TrEMBL record:
Glycosyltransferase 2-like domain boundaries: 5-121
Official protein name in the record: Glycosyltransferase
Organism: Paenibacillus psychroresistens
Database matches in Pfam families: Glycos_transf_2, TPR_8
Annotated signal sequence range: none
Entry keyword annotation includes Kinase: no
GO function term, MF aspect, one: transferase activity
Keyword list, A-Z: Transferase
Length: 368
């Protein structure tokens, strides 16, 4: 059986840290906490779980802090989490089983990461990340912000264990990462390819679309990008053009992503919406159905926009079929949406309306 060091970096995480450690404690053999300047009760909570707490001056460099936490580890493997992550009970059991069975030949175990959720609890964004790494490989973190492990070689195992993100919105600072990037720019520091992409994404999130476009394009023009890098960047670039009102460029960029793989659900929904807006409902139906039918890439590390392959295309198909007078099909798709969004009053109202229309149509077709 392998042993595991849990390595974390924290700052002012008193609202989430205890919940995280409670969810994972049973599966790890030591807990290492690097605190980068907490002024709340974070360290007091950490002391309930471990005496391995390191105080580190914050220098606006997440990788430096991550690497410091790994330096303290003594077990066979290192697992990393953020304070607002948890393992649900079923995933804890999977990790305990993995701990018993993992071959020492495996250097890296990847896990799924459910990053974001809607108000109904549905996963809206899922990615796969390297989570458990062999300590003896000395993998290092790279990137000042949105840091990642640099793994150039090793034996991988892609597990079905899921890490669940439970962000505490009340204590988050939405401008933090953008400030760090701008500090780096002003100091003249060169951006890595990862920095370029994530700076573009921060600009995008802050609705600075023109500048975001420049950095997305700068990223796309780099050599040796993976197809997933290209597809992801083109999806973001198309979104910027949408918000700037340049719908022709939005479509051009969306179709450009098809050069790298089969159409992804996010791109299909974007094209479906264009035709829906234009009241070309049959064309819209084609793209929304394609979004639903698009296969999940096998063992892919692609960023998966779950909304675009679940309730969103069904909701839009409900609108399209209503406009085409296909009320039973519209009801069918609204019914599927209700399974994802049971409290959505708009969907509930749609279903009542469609039930009445279906009855009316049957009465006209089969009069007494």
């Amino acid at each position: 059986m392998i042993t595991i060091s849990l390595c974390m970096i924290v700052k002012d995480e008193q609202d989430t840290l205890g919940r995280c450690l409670l969810s994972i404690n049973e599966a790890v053999d030591e807990i290492i906490i690097v605190d980068t300047g907490s002024t709340d009760g974070t360290k007091e909570i950490a002391r309930k779980w471990t005496n391995q707490i390191v105080n580190l001056e914050w220098t606006h460099d997440f990788s430096r802090a991550r690497n410091r936490s790994h330096k303290e580890a003594t077990m066979d493997y290192i697992l990393w989490l953020d304070a607002d992550d948890i393992l649900l009970p079923e995933d804890l059991q999977k990790l305990l089983q993995l701990k018993q069975s993992l071959s020492p030949a495996v250097d890296v175990v990847s896990m799924l990461y459910n990053c974001d959720f809607d108000e109904s609890g549905n996963v809206t964004l899922q990615v796969r990340r390297a989570r458990l790494v062999k300590r003896s490989k000395n993998y290092l973190w790279m990137g000042t912000v949105h840091e990642d492990l640099l793994i150039e070689e090793g034996t991988f195992l892609d597990s079905d264990i899921v890490i669940t993100h439970k962000k505490n919105q009340s204590t988050s600072d939405p401008d933090r990462n953008l400030r760090i990037y701008e500090l780096l720019l002003s100091s003249g520091q060169d951006f890595t390819r990862r920095d370029i992409l994530h700076y573009a994404m921060e600009l995008h999130q802050h609705r600075l679309f023109e500048t975001a476009i420049q950095y997305y394009q700068k990223f796309i023009d780099l050599e040796h990008l993976t197809k997933e890098d290209k597809i992801h960047a083109y999806a973001k670039l198309a979104d910027c053009y949408y918000y700037l009102g340049d719908r022709e460029k939005e479509r051009e960029i969306t179709f450009k992503s098809f050069e790298y793989d089969i159409p992804r659900p996010e791109a299909c929904c974007r094209l479906g919406y264009y035709f829906l807006e234009s009241q070309q409902f049959e064309q819209a139906v084609f793209w929304y159905r394609l979004a639903i039918e698009s296969p999940i890439p096998n063992k892919s590390w692609a960023i998966s926009n779950q909304v675009s392959r679940t309730w969103l295309p069904h909701m839009q198909l409900g609108i399209c079929y209503y406009q085409l007078g296909e009320y039973e099909l519209s009801y069918h798709h609204n019914k599927i949406v209700s399974e994802y969004r049971p409290k959505d009053q708009g969907v509930i109202n749609n279903m009542y309306l469609l039930e009445e229309l279906i009855v009316q149509n049957k009465t006209k077709t089969n009069p007494m």
